[in-house]
Model the fold of this input.
Amino acid sequence: MLLEDKVAIVTGGTRGIGRAIVLRLARSGCDVAFTYLKSSQEADLLIREAGKLGRRVLALQADVRDFDQSRQLIERVKDDFGKLDILVNNAGITRDKALMMMTREEWLEVVDTNLNGTFNATRCAIVTFLKQKSGSIVNITSVSGVTGLPRQTNYSASKAGIIGFTKALAREVAAYNIRVNAVAPGFIDTDMIGSLKEEFREAIRKRIPLARFGSADDVSRVVEFMASDRASFITGQVVIVDGGLSIQ
Ligand code: NDP
Done:
């Protein structure tokens, strides 16, 4: 198995892409701790489902916006599982609106969750990775952060920030055998885009060369690979998983 006896943390694991990543890593031989903000019922269901895969699975309510909660998360996982090998920064939100209508709160909420949340968890995990001279970090960004999308200035800025963070950190810690990469999904069928009107969904679908929305598993397979030793010579990269949407 690709991730035999590794230990991973996945932020925002209860729904959508995060949930698929938790299951995929567990199936791949990994013990997994995942976080969530509110969905305690979904967390219980996931523990039951992932638990059947024969690996240890831990759910923790921890807000990525809170630095102290991120620190406690890393300590708890090291105490319970004995080590940490992989961090997947997945938790993210959207608050889409034209800039002229966007409130300062809507700007801050998105940047605080997506970008500052990625800083918080990574800053707390990096000390462990530096000490052990190994580690793999996978940051979930978005095509929106690569090309920019209208009504998503807050989201595009936060996701572009994650790309800069990924590249800078990859250079900074490569000498310690720590890899840092990003995965940039396009339109993936999760709660995040489930609320879009059908005519808008159809218009988007027409723009995707592979003519469908991605599944959470389309993304989780790439995350599994990037986290694993199969990607041992890959760092500082952004892998786009978008059915060809961003082909130039
Ligand atoms: P969902 O909305 O389906 O799930 C989001 C997850 O993040 C949930 O588990 C949620 O927990 C958690 N979360 C939200 N805020 C916080 C917080 N402050 N602290 C801890 N956990 C939090 O999202 P997706 O699965 O669609 O997206 C996952 C990632 O993929 C995000 O980073 C998103 O930006 C990115 N992405 C998604 C795309 C898509 O088309 N769906 C496209 C490109 C990128 P809870 O259940 O408790 O609310």
